[in-house]
Amino acid sequence: MASTPDEPPWLTPDEKEAWTGLVSLVLLLPGRLEAPLQHESGLSLFEYLALSHISEAPGRRLRMSELAYLANGSLSRLSNVVKRFEQRGWVERSPDPEDGRYTIAALTDAGYEVVVAAAPTHVRSVRRFVLDPLTAADQKALARIAAKLRIRPVDLA
């Protein structure tokens, strides 16, 4: 179908295939990564990513706004999850000493144990559904594509 001056150019078959592949990846992969976590650890993928990102931060402390970005969730969704984490003794929140407008989420030792216990399940799923089917060149291409689309955690800065 030809486009008019007011319409964007329609996708070519190759572009449509690329777009469909990306959408399928974005929509279906999270469920595949989450199911084993839910089954073995009782954690959603969002919960695991939140705990994991805090565990990897310096001093196991991270601003809530940064954590929301890294875990790909809204600040209000993250706040609800972190409240449950606090009730379980996994996370403590406090004002940021450098700027009191921000809140810091700090992982407790109990929270660290939870993420350490869940990590092997997550890594097995990442390997099974993402890394193992790809060659080393495919993995590098995937990293290059993510960099070009600017959707990596380092793009937060």
Walk me through the structure.
It is a single chain. By secondary structure, this protein is mainly alpha-helical. The chain contains six helices and three strands; from the N terminus they run ααβααββαα. Strand 2 and strand 3 form a beta hairpin. Helix 1 packs antiparallel against helix 5 and helix 2 crosses helix 5. The radius of gyration is 19 Å and the shape is globular.
Sequence-ordered SSE layout with sheet pairings:
Elements: H1 13-41, H2 45-56, E1 61-63, H3 64-70, H4 75-88, E2 91-95, E3 103-107, H5 109-131, H6 136-149
Antiparallel strand pairs: 1-3, 2-3
Helix pairs in contact: 1-5, 2-5, 3-4
Quick take:
This protein has 157 residues and is mainly alpha-helical.
- Percent helix, as a range, is 55-70%
- Order of strands, main sheet, comes to 1-3-2
Could you give a short account of the major beta sheet? 3 strands, antiparallel
Fraction in beta strands? 5-15%
Average predicted confidence as pLDDT = 92
Oligomeric description of these chains: single chain
Rg over CA atoms: 19 Å
What is the tally of helical segments?
Answer: 6
In the predicted model, the low-confidence regions spanning at least 5 consecutive residues are none
Structural class category: mainly alpha
Distance between the termini: 41 Å
What is the total tally of β strands? 3
Q: Spell the H/E element sequence.
A: HHEHHEEHH
Shape: globular
